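Please go through the protein record below and see whether the fold suits the sequence. Record follows.
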Amino acid sequence: MTIKEKLNCYSTEFNARLSEFFPLGTEAESRVVEAMKYSVTNGGKRLRPFLVNETAGLFGLTFEETLRTAVALECLHSYSLIHDDLPAMDNDDLRRGKPTCHKAFDEATAILAGDGLLTYAFELLAQEKTAPLPQTRCELVALLANAAGAFNGMVAGQMLDLLAEKFPESNSETMIKRIEEMKTGRLIRYACEAGAVLGQASVAEREKLIVYSRSIGIAFQIADDILDVEGNPELVGKRLQKDAEQGKLTFVGLYGLDKAKVLAKDYVAQAKDALLSFGDKAETLCSLADFMINRDH
């Protein structure tokens, strides 16, 4: 199978299980759960859950053994998208070709749905069914809290992104890498670290997976910036060329299209190098690195 076929197979299996985690009640307040479910099940490549599964698979874990961690991560990712799309943030009407949560429901419900998904992620990780060892569950929770937080996680990255937009004079190579590391790259790193934690990886193995995650994270963001300039809106599922209109700091804006494409390929090569010691077991992860910059959405 090609990497695209593998991703599609995983997404199909993952999506088939998602509804189990979002039972809808008949009470009026269940509207927020409906909004949560709408956002999580609203398409997507399931790249981060796939990474959890594949990195844990290096150490012999199965789909079932990684599912709850993968769902928790996707909940947190979906929360971040709901809040990013809000009028006070990126003000987007479309996500994956469908109305964003605040358009499908309303702004207040969307804020609460994001809050609900954020907290639910930690509830899932803390449950015994997620991992048998309490120490493993504690580490999964602590890592995700750090990845999502205001010190060097997604909240900090979003703040920096907003500041970069408002103060163009502060735009720099250092800033764009910090934004990527704390936003897009943070959950990609978590996916790979979580797989290592679930698989009881050694310190050396974990470090190699972190290097891999950082490299594909930057490549992924560069590819996103390129798609915003020359992608197909129907395939990407949202309005394009908005970053330039809003004066956002992007890799394409900083380096230009040609250099950005070269940089993306360099980071993919770094990612593959980090996996050499895993041998053939890492074949899918290597193919995924190529996919990061060859995708059309």
About this structure: The radius of gyration is 18 Å.
